[in-house]
Design brief:
Blueprint: E1 6-12, E2 49-58, H1 60-63, H2 83-89, E3 105-112, E4 116-120, E5 128-132, E6 136-140, E7 145-150, E8 163-168, E9 174-180, E10 186-192, E11 206-211, E12 223-225, E13 231-235, E14 257-261, E15 289-291, E16 299-302, E17 309-313, E18 319-325, E19 344-345, E20 348-349, E21 364-367, E22 375-380, E23 393-397, E24 402-406, E25 417-422, E26 426-431, E27 437-441, E28 445-451
Antiparallel strand pairs: 1-2, 2-3, 3-28, 4-5, 5-6, 6-7, 8-9, 9-10, 10-11, 12-13, 13-14, 14-15, 16-17, 17-18, 18-21, 19-20, 22-23, 23-24, 24-25, 26-27, 27-28
Length: 452
């Protein structure tokens, strides 16, 4: 491998609490996004992490991270417009020229919760809303925490199942949740919320969408409104291992995809298909599909400043990957793009019976060396509190607990990736109220990034 410029900040952190990879079918166990058998340790006392400012240079092999060129989109995908081709070759709209300043950050305890898996925000609300896998949503501020929703009667936290994601509608007093029901089926529900308190009205529950899951793992989890005001949903390939049903590249299946819908009812359906979705009118294709070729897009996010789409897709057994899709004029990121699974795991060819042509490779990949096992993404920081972190994409790994920052202004072949902090059992990196960045540990701790 060619030598590449990588800047690494040394880390001083708390001891890791690593998931045991033994069997066990206890329904209360909770697992990393790529392992249906591993069980978590019990919730520890609150942990914080800090970094030191020492900076060194290292090879890409030492930092297990690479940046790769993009491939052209497939000529075999029958798209109604040329927009995916434009998107696949568009430059990243990073709003900065690199390299970015090197940030030094500390993690500060922001609360302890029951198996948190996600954190999301509401425009104009300084609180951060924490999704607990067992079925609750908690609104937390500096002085208080309150239960906004409790659907523990509808879902069970078991392995990769449970309440996995939530999002507020950007323009209406509505909220949406993504969970698995008693049968393991993916469900998206709508709730009316109180315009002042944001408490969910249980009586208003409306089922928007369901997707049957053939296996218990790879349910995805992310639910987010994009810059266009529409709802995006990440779904895994259906589970087990190796994409056994070959769902991810099949346009007839919603599994292994990011879907894009208007969640409001149409005249005939519980949601509306946007007319500009890439596979509307394509014979045999599900029109809700926005992007494809994903194994388990556990987390994804839109850059609040540019509209670019960043996807943390959990790998099979060797490679973890971050996928990137630039926006054009702030919108359209990822439209019709295939990210390659299961023809590829990262940049390595995987299932030989899947067409290897026409896929966009990851912008970053890393191996399972050094205790890594499952990528947990990720967000581009655009807040005001940490000036040197502005523009960095922050992501991490569940098993090692390592949190990295990637400089999107890096040149191809010379990635700038730094070690920022550590958080045991890292489930997510997410933006909360007022633009703050948080690290969420599934064993209980939610931590806020602060400048050192």
């Amino acid at each position: 491998m060619n030598r590449r410029r990588v800047v690494v900040a040394s880390v001083v952190g708390a001891a890791l609490v690593v998931a045991a990879c033994g069997g066990g079918s206890d329904s209360s166990s909770k697992n990393p996004p790529n392992d249906p058998t591993a069980t978590f340790a019990t919730i520890p006392e609150s942990n914080g992490s800090s970094t030191e400012s020492g900076v060194t240079e290292a090879t890409a092999e030492e930092t297990i991270a690479t940046t790769l060129p993009e491939l052209a989109p497939s000529d075999d995908i029958d798209l109604p417009t040329g927009t995916p081709e434009e998107l696949s070759t568009a430059p990243a709209t990073t709003m900065a020229t690199g390299p970015l300043p090197i940030p030094v950050v500390t993690l500060v305890d922001a609360g302890t919760f029951d198996a948190p898996v996600e954190l999301f925000s509401r425009d104009g609300d300084p609180r951060h809303f924490v999704v607990e896998q067992n079925g609750r949503i908690i609104a937390a501020g500096d002085l208080s925490a309150e239960v906004m929703l409790d659907i523990t009667d509808l879902t069970t936290a078991n392995g990769e199942r449970g309440l996995l994601g939530a999002a507020f509608h950007p323009a209406q007093d509505l909220a949406y949740v993504h969970y698995t029901n008693a049968n393991g089926t993916t469900v998206v529900d709508e709730y009316v919320i109180d315009p002042v308190t944001a408490i969910f009205d249980l009586a208003s529950r409306r089922e928007v969408l369901t997707v049957k899951q053939p296996f218990g793992n790879h349910n995805g989890g992310e639910l987010a409104f994009g810059p266009d005001g529409l709802l995006y949903l990440g779904l895994g390939d259906g589970g087990a291992a190796n994409d056994p049903e070959r769902n991810s590249l099949a346009l007839a299946s919603r599994l292994g995809k990011i879907l894009r819908i208007d969640p409001r009812e149409s005249s005939e359906e519980p949601f509306t298909i946007p007319a500009d979705n890439p596979f509307v009118g394509v014979e045999g294709a599900d029109p809700a599909i926005w992007a494809l070729g994903l194994r388990n897009p556990w987390k994804f996010s839109f850059d609040a400043a540019t509209g670019d789409l960043w996807i943390a897709d959990v790998g099979q057994g060797d490679l973890e990957e971050i996928n990137f899709a630039p926006a054009l004029n702030g919108k359209g990121a990822g439209r019709g793009v295939s990210f390659g699974w299961s023809a590829f795991e990262g940049t390595a060819q995987f299932n030989d019976d899947q067409d290897p042509d026409g896929h966009t490779p990851p912008i970053v990949e890393y191996s399972h060396d050094d205790g890594n096992c499952s990528v947990s993404g990720g967000a581009v920081y655009r807040g005001d509190a940490i000036a040197d972190l502005q523009g960095w994409f922050v992501y991490g790994d569940f098993c090692s607990g390592q949190i990295w920052g990637y400089d999107p202004t890096s040149q191809p072949g010379a990635p700038i990736i730094i070690e920022l902090a550590q958080q045991p059992n890292l489930a997510a990196i997410a933006i909360g109220g007022e633009g703050d960045l948080f690290a969420i540990s599934n064993i209980g701790t939610v931590s806020r990034f602060t400048a050192s």
